[in-house]
Amino acid sequence: MDSKFPLVGGVFLEDIARDYAKEFSDIDQLNLPSLSIIDAHDKDFRDLFDDDQWKQIVDESPPIPQLPCSLADHITSYTKCATTDDCIETAYSTESGWDKSTSEYSDKRWIDNVMEHTLFLLTQTSNLLDYRGLKEGVWDSLYAHVMDACILRLARLGLFMQRKEIILAAHTSDPNPFISPYVRYDGIVQTRWQYHSHHLEYAVVEVSSSSDSKTSNEGKRDKDLTKLLAGCRAILNNLKKIVDYDPETVKKLVVVGVLHEGRFTQVLYMSCVGHNMFYLRSGELRPFPENVESIHKACDLLTIIWKVKAVIRDCHSTVTKYLDQKKKSQAIDRRAVDFL
């Protein structure tokens, strides 16, 4: 379970990360290699590896699901909308082309609802979102309409978003925590019930009231990002334990951290590299539209939120598939013992 990840050339990833962490001198940045986290965007760390070695690391991480063409085309159709009436017309004019029994149709209806709500906010609320005095609760409610409604499409799997000041259970079982296990999150995606006696968590969310991506409140942003990184790593450590550190299963695990910072949203994807290391992919800041002319920005936001849902769905499927197979195997073993 504690074996190191070998790279071509006879070196180990853990040793390189440890040596890099010792020389890390940027006091304004979190020393991720010291926390066993590889940042895909850390050029200095990337330069320590040749192309073949880096490919080994990258290949350990599953690809992020892509939005189906049908949904991508439907989102794009909203770029011509200027009023809520336009949204309603776009939604209903395309109804006949969808199979209403599919999950894609459910996602299509989510897109319709969010776009209509977005146009309403932009045209019927006297520029409410431009008000600098908006607190976290307002942004919570806005993103709940966007993200939580998307996660609700996973309710049949027993998954939902638990919001506001929630303790992450995975922190209590993290062998090497770097923040308090009692820190509270603005949102956690988790199962409604225990699955084979396990409480499963897959994503953590933080919300702040900053309405500018270049905010001077860097301390709050850094704190939120640290919480998200710690939460993602703790969730992966817990899931690895739940699937008995099975290498093929662990390789498929991806969990998510989401930062809603006023108008802006950033998504962090974290996966495993071998037994001990973690691979971080950080998405770009995606803005909520500031006016009707920038409604196309909602398309980008909806796309990344859909990807969050898809990653959670696939990770949950991976874990439950392993647990189901384990349960069946244990039942067969018990029947064999009873027969003897």
Summarize the SSE layout with pairings.
Blueprint: E1 6-7, E2 11-12, H1 13-23, E3 37-39, H2 43-46, H3 51-59, H4 69-76, H5 84-93, H6 103-124, H7 136-151, E4 159-167, E5 184-191, E6 201-208, H8 218-242, H9 247-250, E7 254-261, E8 264-273, E9 277-282, E10 286-287, H10 296-339
Parallel strand pairs: 3-9, 6-7
Antiparallel strand pairs: 1-2, 4-5, 5-6, 7-8, 8-9, 8-10
Helix pairs in contact: 4-6, 5-6, 6-7, 7-10
Question: Could you please describe the fold and organization of this structure?
Answer:
Strand 1 (6-7) and strand 2 (11-12) form a beta hairpin. The longest helix has 44 residues, at 296-339. The protein has 2 domains: 6-59, no CATH class; 69-326, no CATH class. The chain has helices spanning 13-23, 43-46, 51-59, 69-76, 84-93, 103-124, 136-151, 218-242, 247-250, 296-339, and strands at 6-7, 11-12, 37-39, 159-167, 184-191, 201-208, 254-261, 264-273, 277-282, 286-287. Helices cover 45% and strands 17% of the residues. Helix 4 runs parallel beside helix 6 (103-124), helix 5 runs antiparallel to helix 6 (103-124) and helix 6 runs antiparallel to helix 7. Strands 3, 4, 5, 6, 7, 8, 9 and 10 form an 8-stranded mixed β-sheet that branches. It has a two-stranded antiparallel sheet with strand order 1-2.
Provide the descriptors you would attach to this structure in a database record.
17% strand; 2 domains; 10 strands; two-stranded antiparallel sheet; 10 helices; 340 residues; eight-stranded mixed β-sheet
As residue ranges, the low-confidence spans are none
Query: Strand fraction band?
Result: 15-25%
Mean of residue pLDDT values? 89
**Separation, N- and C-terminal Cα atoms:** 33 Å
Order of helices and strands: EEHEHHHHHHEEEHHEEEEH
Query: Strand pairing plus helix content: what structural class?
Result: alpha+beta
